[in-house]
Each structure stands twice: as C-alpha cells, then as structure tokens.
Amino acid sequence: MKLLNQKRIHVFLCLFFVGQLGFPCSTFMLKKGKVLIVGHNLDERGHVPGVVVINKRGVFKHGKSWREILSGKLAANPPLKWISKYGSVTFNPFCRDFPDGGMNEAGLFIEEMTLQGTIFPEDESKPLVFMMQWMQYVLDNYETVDQVIRSAHDYVIDGWAWHFFTADQKGNAAVIEFLEGEVKVYKEAELPVTALCNTKYEAEIQRLRTYEGLGGTRL
Questions:
Q1: How, if at all, do strands 35-42 and 9-15 pair?
Q2: What is the pLDDT of residue 5?
Q3: CA atoms within 13 A on the CB side of 149
Q4: Element (H, E) at 134
Q5: Which residue range is the domain that position 108 belongs to?
Q6: What CATH number is attached to the domain comprising 152?
Q7: b/e code 89-115 from CB counts within 10 Å (16+ = b)
Q8: Which long-range CB contacts under 8 A does 70-79 form with residues at least 24 apart?
Q9: What confidence score (pLDDT) does residue 125 get?
Q10: Which of 59, 139, 158, 162 is the most exposed place for a label (fewest CB within 10 A)?
Q11: Does the pLDDT of residue 11 top 70, yes or no?
C-alpha cells in the first residue's frame, strides 16, 4: 500500500487512549509544507476493543442499513453494491467492513466522532446504508474530499449520532454533519481549524474564539 509519494507524506495515527475524566474523541489534520499528519483518538471510559483490518481491492460488497440489521427486513430503498477499487487500513471495533475510520491507498482519510442531535436525511429513492459501511464504501471507492461530500448527498445514511472528518492527499479537508435532516459541510474558508471533537463544528469554533490570542479573553 503506497502512502508515500514525492509530494506528500501521510502519517496515519490511530491513538486509542483510556480517558480518566470523560469520553470525548477528536480528529485532526496538521499541514506544514509538503507534510500532512492526520490523527484520531478515542478517549473512552474503559477499553475500546477492536482490530486493525487490511481491506483489499477487488472485493464485492453489499451494503446494509442500520434498520435492516436490527429488523432483518429489507428497506424500500434501492440496494448499494460495489467492488472495492482501493485497499485501505481501518480500525474496526466490531467486524470487517464496519470501521471506526481509516485511510486508503489513495491517501483518503475518514473518521467519526459522536454528535448528539444528529438527524440523518430520509429519501427512499436513494440507497440507504449504515454509517460504518458508508465509511468503508468511501475508503473503497474514493480519493478526494469532494467525492466524499458528494457521496453524503447521493446516499442516505442511518445509524448512530455521528459526524465525520475527512481529508485527502492534497491537504483538502472537510467536516460533514447531519443536522435537522440536512447535510451540513464545512471546508476551505469555512474550516479555519482542521480538527473536530464532539459538538457541532460551528459551536467548537465559536468556543475557540473566546480564548486569548484567538479573539477572546479566556486563558
């Protein structure tokens, strides 16, 4: 798997810490010159079990929605089927193709964080897929942040209250949230800080600007 080219260096850091005071998680991208570093941590109360999975190219896959997994009944939405184009490395807390996040050989990175208040769109005319499988679909098929953003509109995602941070080998990054049944995207000028935690990105930026040196007076 090629994660090093002449223009960029990507370091994929999955740091799984045991938190003592809470259970937040965070994702970030650092960029300096030709060097990009992306990282993710799970600060949970207790151990976060899982495995590191190498996902291969050329594998046929069939997506399922969360409601289908729970009920065993097919959704009315059209099915999502694909053959993986790119290999990837992911951290999976449950099983293969259900990642918490990872990076593919094209340098595309995606991770999740909890966002209470998440409401996913509803549209029976589009394929419906569980959010973990959507993350694997993204890594299997795409190489750019813009492709991930289009995917968030082209497919309907269901599952738990999560929002997502994604970045690619060119240093592009985006935050994707699902609020009030709509897709909300932050990128470029709307993404002044390439990091994400467990509240709405807009609220995180507003809180950051209350600190000294960033527009506020808090120390």
A1: parallel
A2: 42
A3: 14
A4: helix 131-141
A5: 9-208
A6: 3.60.60.10
A7: bbbbeeeebbbbbbbbbbbbbbbbbeb
A8: 75/124, 75/128, 76/124, 77/123, 77/124, 77/125, 77/126, 77/127, 77/128, 77/156, 78/125, 78/126, 78/127, 79/127
A9: 96
A10: 59
A11: no
The answer to whether the CB of 177 falls within 8 A of the CB of 132 is no
Extract long-range pairs of 41-45: CB within 8 Å, 24+ residues apart.
41/14, 41/15, 41/16, 41/17, 42/16, 42/17, 42/100, 43/17, 43/18, 43/19, 44/18, 44/19, 45/18, 45/19
CA-derived radius of gyration, the chain: 17
Report the number of distinct structural domains present in the chain: 1
What length is written for the chain?
219
Which of 188, 25, 172 is CA-nearest to residue 112? Answer: 25
Return the SS3 of 116. Answer: coil
Give per-residue burial for 177-193: e unless 16+ CB within 10 Å, then b: bbeeeeebbbbeeebee
The answer to whether position 150 is within a domain reads yes
Tokens 């996040």 found at: 101
Q: What is the pLDDT of residue 196?
A: 94
Residue 186 domain-assigned? yes
Phi, psi of 132 (to 5 degrees): -65, -40
Percent of the chain whose predicted confidence (pLDDT) is above 70: 86
Rounded Cα–Cα distance for residues 120 and 131 (Å): 10
Q: What is the mean pLDDT of residues 75-82?
A: 94
